[in-house]
């Protein structure tokens, strides 16, 4: 009897305040959409770090014919200098830091360049004889790049040493900024959702003040009187959270796992499975947010 009465009160309140409830659903949807996007973006950053940091290398670029670097004063790197640099990389001095070394000649550099920019205006734009030779070094510890850089900083035939980790760090820093922006927008929208839920519950309680007054007179507890109002906010917020999860799943399925994954066929992007992991968290956030704001709002009202 009590449960049926509470449910009838809940659905009655949802019907009477449909426009406000719809506003709560939409604001919760938008705010949790940003929250979910931020979580998925962080999951993607973590996956990309695991993938790329295991594959990035230190590139020891050799002198091209027209370099102005002090170590290239004698012109293009000679065969003797190449062998000397290779011997240093594979020698005992760097054995504790260097895992693998392979040489990338002009032909290979040209082929890889065209593969990387296939289908763009850059494909075939650089002749093979203008490509730069290099040694690609995989380190035992990727953070020990400075050791290689310092070792070859004054070596004849070496134009520069480039750590690809630094390029990735810049990329991930940009992605982290995007995540921070999404979190900031989500926080603002969540605050709006909390205020809107509180307003909706207050108006709903005010419109039914006669019923709640009668219930109080017949001895109903505060918890029993408050529960229908709390459930109204919780249901609206849960619907908004579920809608956010559904939209994220559609975007990931058709946009990320569909089109974008085909463009980045080398590592895994976030999938619908990841969205299914995030969605219950979004629903939980929505329920807690609505429940807490409703209880705080009604606590003062019930004391009247």
Structure description:
- The protein is of the alpha+beta class.
- The protein folds into two domains: about 1-50 and about 170-300, no CATH class; about 60-165, Alpha-Beta Plaits, CATH 3.30.70.
- The protein has nine helices and four strands; from the N terminus they run ααβαβαβαβαααα.
- The protein has a four-stranded antiparallel beta sheet.
- α2 (about 20-50) packs antiparallel against α6 (about 165-205).
- The longest helix has about 45 residues, at about 165-205.
- It is elongated and about 95 Å long.
- It starts with a helix and ends with a helix.
- The model has no long low-confidence stretch (mean pLDDT about 80).
Map the helices and strands.
Elements: H1 2-16, H2 18-52, E1 58-62, H3 79-89, E2 98-104, H4 106-116, E3 134-139, H5 145-151, E4 158-163, H6 164-207, H7 209-217, H8 222-263, H9 272-302
Antiparallel strand pairs: 1-3, 1-4, 2-3
Protein name: Cell division protein FtsX
Keywords: Cell cycle, Cell division, Cell membrane, Membrane, Transmembrane, Transmembrane helix
Domain ABC3 transporter permease C-terminal: 184-303
